[in-house]
Design goal:
By secondary structure, the chain is of the alpha/beta class. It contains ten helices and 13 strands. The strands form four sheets. The protein has a seven-stranded parallel β-sheet with strand order 3-2-1-4-5-6-11, with helices on both faces.
């Protein structure tokens, strides 16, 4: 197993960026079953100990890791993966996590979101170019909304809303395909096993497609609550959100998020199912 994970150098360590996040936590659990040594990088001090994991506490915003590896798994910002590729000399394989949001937010009404998506697309292209120039096999994974592990932004935000409101307002019935963090960890391991056969760019949707009201109810049910929904016009929800902002609440929720409730945020992940054996689970929030 070590040879397949480390490409040409059996026993060489595997470098994992963003190892303390939800996907990283599940990935380390899965890699613990394999004969491979992992160099795990995170800004936070790890809460776990594993004889096969070498932890490095580092803020990658200040520069790449001063360590060489033949395989890189990047679960954080794409710019960190790009910096590591440009720095490294022995890399032969990269598996990087990005986002399917580039399909849905490039035309957002929020200028900050449009700018962020333009930057992300540019970084993806730069990473692909850097890998081509260095003859590195790149697998770029672009999932829809990620949940699981207790630290997922969207589902946790919805859960908090459901918990504190007797009636939960919504304004759209757009479709969603939530992806569990552990399913992403599994496909990363599968990509490492496949080697260069896994190279390419892949969209990843969840194992179930459900409309936004059903997603709200499912999140509430996971918390033992019966969710009562009330559909309101989007302009009214925006007004309510503005009042919340004025009182210092819900500042992480932007008007564009309300608009997207009516948009289908789904992808065609058939190529990943055929080439990577992508078999995600149905949506069952933690």
């Amino acid at each position: 197993m070590a040879a397949s994970l480390s490409q040409s150098e059996p026993g060489a360590p595997l470098l994992v960026l963003g190892a303390s996040g939800p996907v990283g936590t599940f990935l380390l659990d899965r890699l613990s079953e394999q004969a491979v040594t992992v160099m795990a990088v995170s800004r936070q001090q790890p809460q776990r100990a594993d004889g096969r994991v070498i932890w490095m506490q580092l803020d990658l915003n200040h520069g790449p890791v001063e360590a060489e590896a033949s395989v890189l798994v990047s679960l954080g910002p794409i710019r960190h993966a790009l910096a590591q590729v440009e720095k490294g000399r022995r890399l032969g394989r990269v598996v990087a996590l990005s986002s399917a949001s580039t399909l849905f937010k490039t035309q957002s009404s929020d200028p900050a979101e449009r700018e962020l998506m333009a930057e992300l697309l540019s970084l993806e292209q730069a990473l692909e170019q850097a890998c081509r120039e260095r003859d590195i096999d790149l697998t770029l994974l672009k999932p829809t909304m990620i949940y699981g592990g207790g630290r997922d932004g969207n589902v946790s935000r919805i859960g908090a809303l459901v918990k504190h409101l007797g009636l939960v307002p919504y304004c759209g019935k757009g479709l969603r395909q939530p992806v569990h963090a552990d399913d992403l960890a599994r496909v990363v391991v599968d990509c490492l096993k496949l080697g260069r056969r896994a190279a390419g760019r892949y969209l990843l949707g969840g194992g179930e497609t459900l409309d936004y009201p059903t997603l709200l109810k499912r999140v509430g049910s996971a918390r033992g609550q019966v969710v009562k929904l009330v559909r309101l016009p989007v302009f009214l929800l925006k007004l309510m959100l503005k009042l919340a902002h004025l009182s210092g609440r819900m500042n992480d929720v932007r008007p564009a998020m309300l608009e997207r409730q009516a948009i289908d945020l789904v992808v065609d992940d058939q190529p990943a199912r055929e080439r990577l054996n992508w078999r995600p689970r149905a949506f069952r929030p933690d």
